[in-house]
Amino acid sequence: MTNTRIVLSSDHAAIELRQAIAEHIKAKGWEPVDIGPVTPESTHYPQHGEAAANKVASGDCRFGIILCGTGQGIMMAANKVKGIRCGVCSDTFSAEMIRAHNDANMLSMGARVIDQDKAIEIVDAFLSTEFEGGRHGTRVDMITAIEA
Ligand code: RB5
User: Domains (ranges, CATH) in the chain?
Assistant: First the structure.
C-alpha cells in the first residue's frame, strides 16, 4: 500500500483516546495525520467528522479514524461526504467486517463506550483486514450509486 496516511479527528470527548491511537498507529508504521482538536473546550463533532472525511475522500489519506462520545454523531457527519463509508465499532468482529464486506474507509468509535485497550484492538482489526470484493463489491457499488 503506497498511501499510509491515516487522518484522525474527534470532538472534546475523545482527545486523549485519539492521541493514544495516533501514537499506536505510528508505532505500527502508519503516518497519523491528527487534525485535532487539541484543547478540551466543548466543540461540535460535525465539523471534525467532515474535515476528516474530506481528507479521505480527496485521497490525501487512505483511512480515517474518528471519535466522539458515542462515535455515532461524528460517523453520521462523515458519511455525508461523498465516497465515505464509515461505521461505528465497539467490537473487533464488526471492525473486520466493515473492511471485509463494506470496504469501509473510516472507522468511528465512542470514547464513552469503550476503553483505550478495546479501541486499540478495534483499530488493529480494522487496519489488518482487506476488502473481499466479489459479491460484496456489488453491494458497495450499490451504496455508491445512492450517492449519484
Ligand atoms: C458530546 O457531548 C457528545 O454529544 C458527542 O461526543 C457524541 O457522543 C455525539 O454523537
Answer: 5-147 (3.40.1400.10)
Closest residue to atom 9 of ligand 1, CA basis: 73
**How, if at all, do strands 31-34 and 106-110 pair?**
unpaired
What pLDDT, on a 0 to 100 scale, did the predictor assign at position 43?
Answer: 98
Q: Identify the segments of the chain with pLDDT beneath 50.
A: none
Q: Quick one: which H or E segment has residue 15?
A: helix 15-27
How much is the pLDDT for 1? 63
- Tell me which residue of 104, 95, 131, 100 sits closest to 21, measured CA to CA: 95
Annotated catalytic residue 12: no
Q: What is the pTM of this model?
A: 0.98
